[in-house]
Each structure stands twice: as C-alpha cells, then as structure tokens.
Design goal:
By secondary structure, this protein is of the alpha+beta class. The chain folds into two domains: 386 residues, no CATH class; 137 residues, no CATH class. Helices cover 51% and strands 7% of the residues. Strands 8-7-11-13-12 form a five-stranded mixed β-sheet. Strands 1-6 form a two-stranded antiparallel ribbon. A hairpin with an 8-residue loop joins strand 2 and strand 3. The longest helix has 28 residues. The radius of gyration is 27 Å and the shape is elongated.
Length: 608
C-alpha cells in the first residue's frame, strides 16, 4: 500500500504523509497506557458529575432541571416498555389523550434500554447519573482508542485528544441535561470505518459494520448522527480536492460499501422513521424561536460557565443557557489551533480538517450573525439551508459541536509532533532531549490554552420533593389507577413536575400536558412546539392568570368541556404551588370546593 493510500485511511496521520510510522511500543506497555488512560477518564467523568453522585436521589441539575426530569422519565419508560411490551414509538401516558411521539422526542433507546436493569433496581435518578457519567467516559475512551491505534504514536497525545473530545467546554455544556449528545462513543468508530471503506477486500465487512454503528447511533441521537454525516462529507470532499489521485481510484469500492450500509440501515430504521415523521403527534420542523439559537461569534473566544476560567455572568449573554454553550474556547486555544494548522499545513489531512472546522464555524452562526448578544445586519450561511427537510430539525448552534472533535484531533497531532520533534531537539538524549526548547514551548502553549478550559463539576440543587399526598400513598384513595391527572397551576413548571411525580409513582396514572415536542395546536402546518398548547382551561388555571375575576358561565362550561374531552379525571393543586390561593379560587369557580388531602387540594372533574 502506498503512503498516499494509507493517509486516506488515517495511518499516515501519525507523522505526516512523507514520514514513516515509528515502531509500536510493546503490547505490555500499550496495555498499561490504555489502563492509565481509562482510569484518568473515569476520574475526570466522576469529577464532573460528583455533585450528582453525592446526592444520588436528592439533587437535580441546577441549570437544566427539565431535561433531567425528561431523561429520567425516558429511563423509567424503558422499564415500563419492556415489562408491559408497550409501543416504543408512542405513549399516551403523557399529554393525554393526544399522546407523545417518542421517536420525535429524545427517547434515546440506545441508552435507556441497556440501562433498564439498573433503572429497575436503583431508580431513574441513579440510572441518569450512570448514563451521564458513562457518556463522558465512553466518549473520551473511544476517541483515545482510535487516536492511539490509528492517528498518533504517543499515548499522551491520544489521551489529550480524547480528553478534549469528551470534556471540552461545549461537551460540559451539553452535559447539563443532554447525555444523549455527550454520548458520542460510536462516532470515532464511525469515522474510522468510513475512512476504511477504501479497502476493496473488506467492502462487505465494512459496509455491514458501518450499518451496525449507524443504526445504534440512530437510536442514541439522530441529530449527532446527522452532524457527523455532514462533517464527514465536507472532510472527504476537502481531502478529495487536494488528493484526487489518491481518492478517485478508491471511490468504487467505497460506494459499494456505502450502498450496502444504506440498504441495511434503511431496512432497519424505515418503520421508526415512518412513525417519527408521519405517525401520531408527528411534527415538521422545530419551533421558529429554537431555529434562532445561533452561535454568538464572540462565544468562540469566551469562557464557558462550566470552565475553570468562566463565570455565569461572563457566559450567559453569549448562549441560550448553559446547555447550549457549545463553543467557548477562550483566546488561547483558537490561537494555538491556528499555529498547529500552520505548523502542520503540509499534511493534506490537516488542511481538510481545518477547512471542515471553518465550514461548521460559519454554519453555526445561524441565519444571521450575532456578536456579544447583539444581532447584526449580516446574514449567516445557514439561512440557505434552514428550511430544508431534516435541516429544519437542527438547532443551528449545535453545528459548532463538530468543531470539538476536529480540535481534539489537531491537539493530538500537535502533542504527537512535539513529542517526536521535541525529542530530537538540541539535546541528543536523556534530559536534554526530553526538555528541548521546542517541547518546552509546546507544553507551555498547551497549558496556557487548556488549563483555563478545565471542566468544573456540574452544579446541582435540591430536588423538589413530592407532596405528602404522594409520599404517604394517600393519592391511591383519590386517583384511580389509569386516571388522567392534571397538576395545577397549568404551565411550564407544572408540566415538568407532573412528569417527575408520574415517574416516581411508577406510571400509575396519566397526565395532562408534560414536557415534550409535538405539533403546535395553534398552527395548521404542524410545526413543532413545546408542551400542550394554550387551551382556555390551561390559561384560566395558570399561575394567577384569572386575577381574581369571576368567570362567566360560558367560560366555566367551555373549561369543563375541554377537560372532559381530554378524559381528565382529577386535578391536583399542592399547597405550596405558586399563587395557590388564586389558582384555587379559579378552580372552585369551575368545579366547586376542592377536597383537602394531606398537602394537596383535589378536584374530581364532573362527568369524568
């Protein structure tokens, strides 16, 4: 095999297209290095999630409680699905009676099903902690494995690259409630197999292997899979433009393998995709306000809230919440990356990586450019793609997540380069060679760039305990099994809380509303929206909305008709709910006096 062919398969990434690969270390040393890397990543993952583990059931993510509640619900629903053989793609226990399309939400079957035994034994909160911690660890170790075997010779270089791919500021941001985005442990192997499709002898094997990896990733997170496919497409085209003589002869074999992958994956995911896009409660495109989640250009040189050098005040105006702080490299790392690209520019693969990163930096700016929180008059390139099918389901700022593994690979190449070139410095051997000026400068540049970005533990807050109405079991006498329950006051917080309490009580009742994506009931185009929608009864019984005014007879009758049409059985109002007295007054105008049970007011819906 020629050096050029090996370059496309990542073999020559170790030292460049014109340099031979150094001899591999002994297997024993390699295994020791692998174990040290695994231990290091495990400690890092635990350090990031330590606050959650110190309070396994009594704490919840401070910055993104609703997403933790949703993932805990999904974990518990996986157990329910296995026990009762429920429909895995749709549920009517949330947003009753309309239901929720689970394929169009973050059901994450690739993670929740394997964790079902842990969820059944220890509960959804503990299982969520396992999922999140394992996502960080698995992503880091997978990148380390691929980097150390196929990209760099130095285990230290592979460790640095893998650590950045999993613990970069953007990954810590997604870790605040999005374990399915952090769980990128399949992506390094997908990249590896795609680049190995060039091998004619392995075209069937690689095609089937890629099909298995893609299918599994599909059931973890479709958005990450789409981003990976787009990034690989840009990278391969960028490399092909530079090395047509290398890539063109390999196209036939690669296309045969890709065709096999496409056929196999299509057969497996056709029905789930049909349910996702055409089944009950399917929708088309994200809410328009979500599609304006652009990456602030200034965020690329800012410091994230979860970084050592970052603060909430310094980061919050540059992103849409902590969970979308996807960039935030500070000033040092962008400068270092530019220096790495310049130093290694002779390598075609580095040029392709740099071009791919630049494309996604531009696309992540969204439909218009934002700087320091202010919208500029300049349009972003994403405007050309935003309304196309599939692209209308991508949150624009998450396009910047593609940059993270590219920077991780470049860092690994740089560390590998300084380990090799630095060792050949002015000293011939021993200490002089180990501490040559080149190596010292390289290590200093890495430290200056990466130390400010070191991750800090995810912050938590005490979990809102369930009312005594639930914890004492008193609810069994007021809420029949299978009943549809509405939690007052209607609104965002109650929708999230009702899912938490439904999970804790083992899905013994259905709930009105909830935290989910579904078709916006106020629109005819079935564009996606969050929650159940602004129905009259939800507006009347929202937090303090009625303002003490008397409802007309027509309004009361309309509210009753809506609740009856939803087959609502019971409405609950905790004593400590926001503006509980005002909400109770509104409920009594519709249903009459409520019944006080423990610390909850209970109303039966007449005619239910």
């Amino acid at each position: 095999m020629t050096t050029d062919h090996a370059s496309l398969g990542t073999q020559s990434l170790r030292t460049g297209a014109d340099r031979s690969v150094p001899a591999s270390p002994r297997v024993r040393d390699r295994r020791a290095g692998d174990w040290l890397a695994a231990i290091g990543y495990a400690l890092l993952a635990l350090a990031v999630t330590v606050q959650l583990w110190l309070h396994p059931t009594g704490a919840i993510l401070q910055e993104n409680q609703q997403d933790e509640v949703q993932f805990e619900w999904m974990l518990a629903n996986a157990v329910r699905t296995l026990r009762h053989l429920c429909d895995p793609f749709f549920t009517d226990v949330v947003n009753a009676p309309f239901g929720v399309n689970l394929m169009a939400n973050t059901s994450t079957w690739g993670l929740t099903l394997p964790l079902a035994p842990m969820t059944a034994l220890f509960g959804a909160p503990v299982s969520f902690r396992i999922m999140l911690t394992a996502a960080f660890f698995g992503t880091a170790l997978s990148w380390y494995h691929v980097l150390s075997r196929r990209v760099v010779a130095s285990r230290i270089a592979a460790f640095v690259g893998g650590a950045f791919c999993a613990f970069a500021p953007g990954m810590l941001g997604q870790g605040t409630g999005h374990p399915n985005v952090v769980a990128q442990f399949l992506l390094p192997f997908i990249v590896l197999v795609v680049l190995d499709l060039r091998k004619p002898a392995d075209r069937v094997r690689n095609g089937l292997l890629l099909a298995g990896l893609v299918t599994y990733q599909f059931f973890i997170n479709e958005e990450v899979l789409l981003l990976a496919a787009l990034a690989l497409g840009v990278f391969v085209v960028a490399y092909w433009v530079q090395r047509r003589d290398v890539v063109t002869p390999l196209l036939r074999s690669s296309l045969v393998s890709l065709a096999l992958t496409t056929v196999v994956v299509s057969v497996i995911v056709a029905y789930p995709l049909y349910r996702q896009f055409f089944g009950r409660q399917s929708y088309h495109g994200l809410p328009e306000w979500v599609l304006e989640y652009n990456t602030d250009l200034a965020s690329y040189v800012g410091y994230a809230q979860q970084s050592l050098a970052g603060t909430k005040a310094g980061a919050e105006h540059l992103a849409q919440g902590v969970s979308e702080q996807n960039t935030f490299y500070g000033w040092g790392l962008p400068v270092l990356v530019l220096m790495i690209v310049a130093a290694l520019w002779r390598r075609a693969v580095v040029r392709a990586l740099a071009l791919t990163a630049a494309v996604f930096v531009l696309l992540s700016l969204g439909q218009y450019v934002v700087v320091e929180g202010e919208k500029t008059p300049y349009a972003g390139p994403w405007r050309l793609l935003a309304e196309l099918p599939l692209f209308d389901t991508v949150v624009p700022t998450r396009l910047s997540l593609v940059v993270i593994p590219i920077v991780g690979v470049l860092l690994a190449l740089f560390v590998d380069w300084i380990m090799v070139e630095g060792g050949r410095g002015v000293g011939s051997a021993g200490a002089r060679g180990a501490w040559s000026p080149l190596r010292v400068l390289g290590i200093g540049a890495l430290a200056a760039s990466l130390v400010p970005l070191l991750p800090t533990p995810l912050t938590v807050t005490p979990r809102q305990p369930a009312p005594r109405f639930f914890s004492t079991g008193a609810w069994h006498h007021s809420v029949p099994d299978g009943a549809t329950v509405g939690l007052l006051p209607f609104g965002w917080q109650s929708d999230v809380t009702s899912m938490q309490w439904q999970t804790e009580q083992g899905f013994r009742f259905k709930i009105l509303g909830g935290y989910f994506l579904g078709p916006d009931p106020t629109r005819d185009d079935r564009r996606g929206g969050y929650g159940a929608g602004p129905y009259l009864v939800r507006t009347v019984l929202a937090e303090g909305r009625q303002g003490g005014r008397r409802l007309s007879g027509q309004e009361r009758q309309h509210c009753l008709q809506q609740l009856r049409s939803w087959h609502a059985t019971v409405l609950l109002l905790p004593e400590n709910a926001p503006n509980a007295a005002a909400v109770r007054e509104g409920a009594e105008q519709i249903f009459g006096p409520g019944r006080h049970v423990e610390d909850v007011w209970v109303w039966r819906v007449p005619g239910a």
